Amino acid sequence: GPLRFSLFTLFPELLLPFTQEALLGKAARQGLLAFDVIQLRDFAGNRHHKVDSPPAGGGAGMVIRVDVVERALASLPTPPDEVILLTPAGQPFTQRLAEQLSERQHLALLCGRYEGFDTRVERLATREVSIGDYVMMGGEAAAACIVEAVGRLRPGVIGDAESHRADSFSSGLLDYPEYTRPPVWQDETIPEVLLGGNHAAIERWRRDQALARTLARRPDLLPNAGLSPEDSRTLLA
Ligand code: SAM
Fold first, then answer.
1. Complex ipTM > 0.90
2. What Gene3D superfamilies does the database record attribute to this sequence (predicted)?
């Protein structure tokens, strides 16, 4: 069956394009993915549809109520495999985590706004996730990142299953550089080996490029990259 994302937000319009456009939208129409974008305000439980309240103890801004989130989650016909609370205080989002999440059937994502959620929401979550060490206005952009990274890992969502293979981080290294037409641009030519049709030589060149780029830009990735003895020789050369 499809991987279902239930996205809880105060601003559904922000998330709809990621669920309807481009390859993720196509995957949804094909039944490979399923999206519910759920307005938290519908579960406010009061006439004014008010979901937030001032912080206990005082201070600026407003805090989203835990009882509202509880009712919203309870509206799902079946409990999700994971309830992911988006917060700068969460576990850093990585390709590894995207791969784990792509094996689930149903993910619920909670997008905060304002000063965030009442901390007791953590009890309704199976996991807290941050997309990086910066603070955004709300969790929608973070949810979009997760939908984009996880959705494309489901079989059939991107055309060619091979194209995951060399993706940055999937292989443990940054991706190798690609070229296409024109063959010469501003004095920069396409490397000879890519035009020669020798597939073994092309594979070796690409692996060497991935190693060299990772060494230059992200040496922190190398200890966990599962390097072969030949890779190590390349790096030392
Ligand atoms: N006061 C909160 C703090 O410092 O942790 C920040 C609240 S932020 C203005 C509002 C909402 O944006 C958060 O509840 C969260 O859902 C989302 N958000 C902001 N930055 C995020 C990040 N780096 N990763 C995940 N979610 C984030």
1. yes
2. 3.40.1280.10, tRNA(m1g37)methyltransferase, domain 2
